[in-house]
Here is the input.
Amino acid sequence: MTAATLLAAAAGVVAALGATDLAQAGSGARRATAGRRLALSLLARAGRGLARRAPRDLAARLEVAGVQTPPGDVMAVKTGSALLALLATLPLVADLPGRLGLPACALAAAGAFLGPDVWLRRRAQVRRLAVEAELADVLDLLRVALAAGLSAGRALAEVGRRHPGTLAAELHRAADAVALGVPAADALTHLERRCPAAGIVPLTATLRRAARHGTPLGPALEAQAAEARSRSARAHAERAARAAPQVQLVVALVLVPSVLLLVAAALIPA
Here is the structure.
């Protein structure tokens, strides 16, 4: 149970306890302190239980998003955010008409609980697009490093150290793991899990084949770099094709009416 887990799980209750302390300052200070200790103890126990009940795929989603946080801490943050949103919206129950108050509180708590999941999904998508955009350049750098006489592991480490991108950082991470004694196959498998982007599986398969059979990496990396650039060009063409109807809609709804208004204004006698 880390301090981050405890603080995140207690986020929703701290506000209420602070208000209670301010209201009861003086005669009720001792009872407020005892209540706070009891609440923190209960929240610590709940946080440990949440750490054990984290979804099975949460660790994998954290890896894909590149977040170095234990799943238990993430569950504590989700729960603390839901409690804080619930306590923040409870005063609005009396202001909302009819029976809308409690559903609004429930929706606010659910949104706060699911917010980190949405953020993780968005971050994973951004990382995947970044890896796909950097793949061709990283493959060319690997090919140049191998042609200069470096071994595969040294080439991965040098490219990862000199290139500022996301994929290069993951390659540097894999090279460091191998240098620390992790089997190369396990490091490449971990790389595939952290970077589920197009072109990564062929790259790791080529590295495994070269390590097992001694096949040259240069031609394979050159072909994969060409394929990555072709794939990127197709993606840009598809995005441009999807943007064309949107541009036409803007022209039809904004530019054409504005031009007609200018023409009408010019035709109206002064």
Q: What stands out?
A: The chain is about 80% helix and 0% strand. The two ends are 79 Å apart (CA to CA).
